[in-house]
Amino acid sequence: MMYVINDSCISCGACEPECPVNAISAGDSIYVVSADCIDCGACANVCPVDAPQPE
């Protein structure tokens, strides 16, 4: 299981530095999660709009 970032992402960048495995990066319009995600939920804990969700 991994997290994905849905369309409610406002590209604030709060999630990227929280990821312990650097699996989050800026995409074209929203942030994206790579396959390196370890399903820890750190990104979801800091997102102001609940964009990261378990896949």
From TrEMBL:
Main function: Ferredoxins are iron-sulfur proteins that transfer electrons in a wide variety of metabolic reactions.
InterPro entries hit by this protein: 4Fe4S_Fe-S-bd, 4Fe4S_Fe_S_CS, PSI_iron-sulfur_center
PROSITE patterns the record matches: 4FE4S_FER_1, 4FE4S_FER_2
Gene3D superfamilies: 3.30.70.20
UniProt entry keywords in alphabetical sequence: 4Fe-4S, Iron, Iron-sulfur, Metal-binding
Record-linked Pfam families: Fer4_7
Cofactors demanded by this protein: [4Fe-4S] cluster
Stretches assigned to the 4Fe-4S ferredoxin-type domain: 1-29, 30-55
Name of the protein in its database record: Ferredoxin
